[in-house]
Amino acid sequence: MTGYGQGQRDVGDLRVTVELKTVNNRFADVRFRLPAELAVWESKVRRKVLAHVKRGRVELSVRLERAGATAGAPTLNRELVEAALAGARQLREEYGIEGDVDLARILALPGLFRSEGPLYDVDEELLGVLGKCLDAGLDALGADRAREGQALATEMIERLGTMQRLAETMEEQAAAMPGTVLDRLTARLNALGGEVSLDPARIAQEAALLADRCDVTEEMVRLRGHLAQARAVLEKPDGQPVGKRLDFLLQEIHRETNTVSSKSSDLELTRSALSMKAEGEKVREQVQNLE
Question: What is the pTM (predicted TM-score) of this model?
Answer without folding.
Answer: 0.62
